[in-house]
């Protein structure tokens, strides 16, 4: 077998296991957990995408909440219940907001980039919280009885929708990583000035990447709104942005699959740890993050590099 | 006219508070070139310890005049204990690594401290207003106003003047300037740069805790205040220019007055006015008012 056919075969098996095997064999709560984990993985993927260009954001929940609330507003004011329409609206909201804010943010790097994003996400959080008449304040908005192509969206259908959309977007992001623009982003990480000397527009690469990252998070937020059925301003809170960064670092930036692995791992650990001791949850995250920074800079994904590789023998 | 007076007084009080919390952040960044994301948590620690000391002291029934010293003590204890701990144990190991790693490191410390506060003081609000009420109120041009904010302004001015004097008039100031300008040359001159880093970080931590301790008598304390303080003070120092104390003063005054004006005239803008000013300033002056343009090296 050539490497290519083997990869295709492996992907088919993985798809079969995920689409048919998981819902048949595993209990409902794990199916739901995987729904949430795969949806959130998209927002983390956005953070990872930016990190590949050395851009760290502490406000990515801004786009996550924007996507969720775009769907929520459509349910509340337009009476739309079709999941695909809601997701399209979420995507549109993510692109629109990131295209606007990107004009300012894409000019900055490092500390400024991280904190400007944080500041904007706090503004959105404040708006969602204070403008009670528009966004429902802390009560949030209920996404009641969404449909998929006219049929009621069951937990199983939601799971299939979430993993297939995540798989599609992960694949597209992979295509982006290996595109000229994706390589430009990697070159920016190494040396921005040299990239400019080659006659490539750094600003354009950062701006486009920022919009893609925003779009990914918005779709993620839309999926979460559908899966959970209720949205609150907490979606935009800084701790949510921090969680995305945490999962991104946990998984690593080495591959588009790393955020998915990190996200699933994170949701499982949270499921147990949070119940065990809610007051030490953030502390646990902080300590794990410290350990990764000092002992496993490439994240969990970098462990795969230590696995024996048959094809190289 | 009366409105103008009220807006001015409130703006001054808010500006003083902003300067107190942002001066430490910008000072630390100026020397270490690391933005301390745990700054808001040091603020929270200072506030909680200050409030606890005041409450315990108030229970004894002695003269309230001493509570101000207790607030100061709380800030010193937090800053001098936690500051060097963070710098020596953790930050020191990542100076040679990428800027985003340094940010991630201070972020993890911020997460840890967030829960330290919750574990130590619980989640029920704490309120120790004795130092606030003890000073009483004053009538100014027909406006009834508390004395305490003026104390805040006086302390902010004192802190600003102290920092300015240290940097421009003392030997330590010369050493600081030298380290800021060129770390490696300073090392060859025999300056103990690691010690300067520890001192600068500790000074920033003391200032953060001082801001918290002095605010404790004005509002009741709830967990999670750290992030808001961090973002607000970042907005202020981004306006003034990262690393510039004078910039922090100007940013504080600008934001303080604008916010106070918004509270009375456009209450719905209250939350965003800070970020609006920040966005406007950064649009036309990306490095802030007194920020230096970074030299780009190939």
Write a brief structural summary.
By secondary structure, chain A is an all-alpha fold. Chain A has helices spanning 3-25, 28-51, 61-78, 83-105, 110-130, 132-135, 155-177, 180-190, 192-197, 202-228, 238-251, 258-276, 281-295, and strands spanning 141-142, 147-148, 151-152, 230-231. Helices cover 73% and strands 3% of the residues of chain A.
Q: What this model shows, in words?
A:
The complex is a heterodimer of chains A (313) and B (298). Chain A is mainly α. Helices cover 73% and strands 3% of the residues of chain A. Chain A is built from 13 helices and four strands. Chain A has helices at 3-25, 28-51, 61-78, 83-105, 110-130, 132-135, 155-177, 180-190, 192-197, 202-228, 238-251, 258-276, 281-295, and strands at residues 141-142, 147-148, 151-152, 230-231. Chain A has a two-stranded antiparallel ribbon with strand order 1-4. In chain A, a hairpin with a 2-residue loop joins strand 2 (147-148) and strand 3. The mean pLDDT of chain A is 86. Chain B is built from twelve helices and two strands, in the order H-H-H-H-H-E-E-H-H-H-H-H-H-H. Chain B starts with a helix and ends in a 14-residue tail after the last helix. The longest helix of chain B has 31 residues, at 2-32. Chain B has 298 residues and is mostly helical. Chain B has helices spanning 2-32, 39-60, 67-89, 99-121, 130-134, 148-169, 171-181, 183-188, 193-215, 225-240, 245-265, 273-284; strands at residues 137-140, 143-146. In chain B, helix 2 (39-60) packs parallel to helix 4 and helix 2 packs across helix 10. The model of chain B has no long low-confidence stretch (mean pLDDT 86). The chains are: A mainly alpha (313), B mainly alpha (298).
């Amino acid at each position: 077998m050539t490497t290519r056919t083997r990869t295709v075969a492996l992907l088919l098996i993985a798809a079969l296991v995920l689409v048919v095997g998981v819902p048949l064999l595993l209990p409902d709560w794990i199916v739901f957990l995987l729904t949430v984990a795969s949806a959130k993985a998209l927002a983390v993927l956005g953070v990872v995408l930016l990190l590949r260009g050395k851009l760290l954001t502490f406000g990515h929940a801004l786009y996550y909440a924007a996507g969720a609330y775009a769907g929520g507003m459509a349910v509340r004011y337009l009476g739309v219940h079709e999941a695909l329409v809601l997701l399209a609206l979420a995507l549109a909201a993510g692109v629109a907001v990131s295209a606007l804010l990107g004009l300012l943010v894409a000019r900055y790097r490092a500390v400024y980039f991280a904190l400007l994003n944080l500041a904007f996400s706090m503004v959105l959080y404040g708006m969602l919280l204070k403008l009670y008449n528009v966004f429902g304040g802390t009560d949030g908005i209920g996404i009641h009885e969404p449909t998929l192509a006219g049929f009621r969206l069951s937990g199983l259908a939601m799971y299939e929708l979430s993993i297939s959309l995540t798989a599609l977007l992960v694949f597209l992001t992979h295509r982006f990583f290996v595109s000229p623009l994706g390589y430009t982003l990697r070159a920016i990480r190494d040396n921005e000035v040299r990239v400019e000397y080659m006659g490539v527009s750094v600003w354009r690469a950062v701006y486009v990447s920022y919009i893609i990252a925003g779009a990914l998070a918005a779709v993620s937020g839309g999926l979460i709104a559908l899966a959970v059925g209720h949205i609150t301003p907490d979606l935009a809170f800084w701790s949510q942005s921090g969680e995305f960064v945490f999962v991104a670092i946990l998984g690593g930036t080495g591959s588009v699959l790393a955020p998915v692995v990190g996200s699933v791992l994170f949701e499982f650990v949270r499921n147990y740890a949070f119940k065990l001791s809610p007051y030490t949850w953030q502390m646990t995250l902080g300590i794990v993050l410290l350990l990764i920074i000092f002992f496993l800079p490439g994240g969990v994904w970098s462990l795969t590099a230590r696995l024996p590789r048959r094809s190289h023998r | 006219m009366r409105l103008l007076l009220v807006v001015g007084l409130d703006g001054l009080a808010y500006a003083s508070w902003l300067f107190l919390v942002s001066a430490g952040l910008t000072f630390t960044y100026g020397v270490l070139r690391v933005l301390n994301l745990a700054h808001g948590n040091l603020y929270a620690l200072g506030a909680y310890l200050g409030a606890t000391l005041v409450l315990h002291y108030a229970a004894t029934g002695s003269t309230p005049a001493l509570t101000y010293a207790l607030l100061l003590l709380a800030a010193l204890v937090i800053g001098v204990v936690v500051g060097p701990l963070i710098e020596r144990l953790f930050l020191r190991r990542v100076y040679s690594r990428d800027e985003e790693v340094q940010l991630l490191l201070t972020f993890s410390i911020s997460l840890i401290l967030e829960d330290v506060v919750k574990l130590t003081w619980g989640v029920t609000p704490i309120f120790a207003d004795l130092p606030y009420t003890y000073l009483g109120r004053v009538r100014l041009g027909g406006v009834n106003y508390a004395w305490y904010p003026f104390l805040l302004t006086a302390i902010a001015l004192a802190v600003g003047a102290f920092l300015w004097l240290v940097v421009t008039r003392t030997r330590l100031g010369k050493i600081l300037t030298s380290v800021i300008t060129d770390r490696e040359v300073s090392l060859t001159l025999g300056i103990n740069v690691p010690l300067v880093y520890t001192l600068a970080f500790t000074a920033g931590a003391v200032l953060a805790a001082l801001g918290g301790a002095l605010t404790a008598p004005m509002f009741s304390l709830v967990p999670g205040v750290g992030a808001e303080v961090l973002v607000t003070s970042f907005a202020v120092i981004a306006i003034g220019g990262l690393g510039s104390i004078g910039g922090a003063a100007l940013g504080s005054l600008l934001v303080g007055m604008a916010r106070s004006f918004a509270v009375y005239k456009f209450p719905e803008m209250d939350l965003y006015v800070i970020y609006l000013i920040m966005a406007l300033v950064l649009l036309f002056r990306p490095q802030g008012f007194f920020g230096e343009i970074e030299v780009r090296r190939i």
